[in-house]
Amino acid sequence: MKFTNILFLAVLLTACTTDPSKKAKANEITTAAAEASTTDAPIMTFDKLSHDFGTINEGEVVETVFTFTNTGSSDLLILNARGSCGCTVPDYPKDQPIAPGDSAEVTVKFDSNNKPNANNRSVTFTTNTEKGREVVQIRTFVTPDPLKEQQREARRQAAQANQQ
Fold first, then answer.
1. Are strands 78-83 and 117-127 parallel, antiparallel or unpaired?
2. Per residue in 70-122, pLDDT tens?
3. What is the CA radius of gyration of the chain?
4. Going from the N-terminus, what domains does the chain have, and what CATH number goes with each?
5. pTM for this one?
């Protein structure tokens, strides 16, 4: 029986009865179900939740590795991983069970091309953990390429001229 069904049943039993012993029994069922769902679920524990690349030059592609361990009691699965934009690309063990106690790595690449100045990006993992989603962050400051900066400024001025 799924946790949500057990929880619903416990709430229903509690709401529909006036006998204190039945309410106590329903609370015990709810507590036991919550503990069971927590203890059975895999837990994705990262060595770090964020990485700062510092200052880089526009056009550079940088990467970092996030190591994680399954500290839960059942196999961990990463069903999907997505960067917050196309410039942030994760490489992860897709649909490969990570046994309790085992570790794995996720490599995250950031392409700074046309991304001048401050950048804060995230990678969201869809997992079979209790939360269902886990998130890591990357950040960097990208020093603008002078030539590209001139081109961007020329496009801004042309767009403003066209609006007038």
1. antiparallel
2. 999 999 999 999 999 999 999 999 989 999 999 999 999 999 999 999 999 99
3. 24
4. 3-40 (no CATH), 44-146 (2.60.40.10)
5. 0.72
